[in-house]
Design goal:
InterPro entries: SEZ6_CSMD_C4BPB_Regulators, Sushi/SCR/CCP_sf, Sushi_SCR_CCP_dom. Keywords: Disulfide bond, Repeat, Sushi. It comes from Liparis tanakae (Tanaka's snailfish). Pfam families: Sushi. One of its GO terms (biological process) is regulation of protein kinase C signaling. The chain has 182 residues and is mainly beta. Among the domains are: 49 residues, Ribbon (Complement Module, domain 1), CATH 2.10.70.10; 54 residues, Complement Module, domain 1 (Ribbon). Helix content is 2%, strand content 27%. A four-stranded antiparallel beta sheet has the order 6-7-9-10, with no helix packed on it.
Length: 182
């Protein structure tokens, strides 16, 4: 059985019928007392087919990154995965979904330039001191020392340097503490 969306009577003009499906059936019943029926004018119907919108809004590309999609167009349930170029970290959700209400599950993320060097690691049979103590941001200096009976092989300190492209980099490799020979 069909769902009745509305009943329209008289000479009322410009009513609108909207359907959420792909088909609409419009039924007419003539009123023999209507003067237009007597003059054999019948019915005049104007209609326009509107393409259904079943996609989420298109999202822009992100600077210093790219988008991979599970579908060729952003339909309900499709998943966008964001990734950043080397030297950049993602800020925000890297996966967003086109929801049933045709909105995105979150805003697109951004790619932010990495401003830290990776942890250079601890030195076996020795110690390290980091200045400043929080993280390994560009400008950080790490000093190394060895336990008694061991000597440093390599630099006694390294520093984190920023680069125009790619991630920041240490000035040298971390040293090793090797057993002193007698």
């Amino acid at each position: 059985m069909s769902h009745v969306m509305g009943q329209y009577l008289g000479s009322k003009e410009r009513f609108q019928v909207v359907s959420g499906g792909s088909e609409v059936t419009i039924q007419f019943q003539s009123d023999p007392d209507d003067s237009s029926f007597i003059l054999s004018q019948g019915f005049l119907i104007h209609y326009r087919e509107v393409e259904p919108n079943d996609t989420c809004p298109t999202l822009p590309q992100i600077d210093f990154g790219w988008i991979s999609s599970s579908h060729s167009s952003p339909v309900r349930g499709s998943v966008l995965t964001y990734q950043c170029q080397p030297g950049y970290d993602i800020s925000g959700s890297d996966i967003i979904t086109c929801q049933w209400d045709l909105s995105w599950s979150s805003s697109p993320p951004t790619c932010v330039k990495v401003q830290q060097c990776p942890d250079p690691g601890e030195v076996v049979n020795g110690a390290r001191s980091v200045r400043p103590e929080a993280g390994f941001a560009v400008g950080t200096v790490v000093r190394f020392s060895c336990n008694q009976g061991y000597q440093l092989e390599g630099p006694s300190q390294i520093s984190c340097h920023g680069r125009d492209t790619g991630t920041p980099k240490w000035s040298d490799r971390s040293p090793k503490c090797v057993c002193e020979s007698f």
